[in-house]
Amino acid sequence: MRHGGWEMETEVHKSLENVPYPFHNGLIQNDESINLQSAKDYDSLIILRWRKRECKSCQESFDIAAEGMMYKCGVCIDERN
Ligand SMILES: [Zn+2]
After folding, report:
1. Ligand 1 geometric centre to CA of 13 (Å)
2. In this structure, how many other beta carbons lie within 10 angstroms of the beta carbon of residue 24?
3. What's the CA-to-centroid distance between 72 and ligand 1, angstroms?
4. Are the beta carbons of 21 and 39 closer than 8 angstroms?
5. Which position among 16, 19, 22, 73 has the lowest Cβ density within 10 Å, counted as fewest Cβ atoms?
6. How much is the pTM?
7. Which residue, 43, 33, 20, 21, is CA-closest to 72?
8. Separation of CA 66 and ligand 1 centre (Å)
9. In the chain, at which residue ranges do the beta strands (DSSP E only) sit?
């Protein structure tokens, strides 16, 4: 049923090990925000593991541990709803 699931997880783990930041609570603790395109270019397997991200709507940095969803900050998500 979950064909290939184990291999996929192993790949993600390998990617996370190569990131030069600590990994805590399921997130990469990067200190400078990363935007969606850079995250894709860096490693498409771990796009949603970065903690500090740049909002794709307003380009402001935000902390996904505190607000926001995917690559949108809390403010832009509120405006849409
Ligand atoms: Zn925003």
Report:
1. 29
2. 10
3. 5
4. no
5. 22
6. 0.86
7. 33
8. 13
9. 23-24, 27-28, 52-54, 61-63
Task: Name the token pair of 75.
Answer: 């403010």
Helix then strand count (H, E) for the chain reads 3, 4
Cα(48) to centroid of ligand 1, in Å? Answer: 16
Tell how far the Cα of 69 is from the centroid of ligand 1, in angstroms: 10
Assigned token pair, 17: 């090990």
Which amino acid, one-letter code, is at 46? I
